[in-house]
Amino acid sequence: MKYSSKSGILLHQNFRDALIIDKYDSEFQQWRGKKLEHLKSENSEDAMTWNVYRSLRQINPVFWLPSLFKESFQKEFSYSLDSIDLRLWKKLNPPKNLSVKEGSTEVDIIMESNEFIWFIEAKYKSDISLSTSNDLSRNQVIRNIDVGLDYANGKDFYFSLLILDEKHSSKGFSITSTYRNSFNYVKRDLPNQIDSLNNLKGIGIFTWFDILKAFGKLTKIEVTEFERFIAKQAEIWLRNKIVNLSE
After folding, report:
1. CA atoms of 119 and 192, how far apart (whole Å)
2. Model confidence over 195-219: pLDDT tens digits?
3. Burial class (CB in 10 A: 0-12, 13-18, 19+), 55
4. Helix/strand/coil (H, E, C) string of 65-87?
5. Closest CA to 148 of 205, 186, 177
6. Residues in a beta bridge with 112
7. Alpha-carbon distance 62 to 77, whole Å?
8. What is the 8-class DSSP label of residue 123?
9. Could you tell me the pLDDT band of residue 6, with boundaries at 50, 70 and 90?
10. Would you say 152 and 199 are in contact if contact means Cβ atoms under 8 Å apart?
11. CA nearest 239: which of 127, 164, 169, 166?
12. Are 222 and 62 spatial neighbours (Cβ–Cβ below 8 Å)?
């Protein structure tokens, strides 16, 4: 059952009604009440991230990770696909050498192996933050890259912005494109990471439509029956969330 907020946004009665997978995961016991409330919204980025990436986590990454990597960075995936760890909303401390005090950063999606780290900032119908509480010039993209380089600790590091389209996340699209196309801007905004910037191997953008396409392919190839079921369920749900929104 759904009802409308004062602003007209549809809300689920129970946050679990917004989920298609792992509805009773023990992780929810650690979530703040406010975060659980956000899951109820039809516009919830957390519900998008949970349903999509918890579904992908049930499917062998060989069938989807290289294609999404190529969509984001326009180059082939060249790492081993053994022991890929996928985590959502991991909180990381700020780099110790920051000149301005900053709190922890909650990274939406982290994919990690012994060779590489891939951070993803996920947006749905919203845009990135252009500042932090203590630094009006520090946008959400550069903050993720800064924290990611620290976390990577010498491994190859990648950052992507995941969006619905440029219209809904115009600032994030513009800023991420600038960093992707000109490394000088990254160096300008990360003076504290000069010694680690060689580990930054890619900055990219991809969309929920790219993931929808990946789910569609998964339903047609030789995966297990369980993986095909998970992919089809996620494909149907995601299609209902994004089709017609970009028109």
Report:
1. 19
2. 999 999 999 999 999 999 999 999 8
3. buried
4. HHHHHHHHHCCCCCCCCCCCEEE
5. 186
6. 85, 117
7. 10
8. -
9. low
10. yes
11. 164
12. no
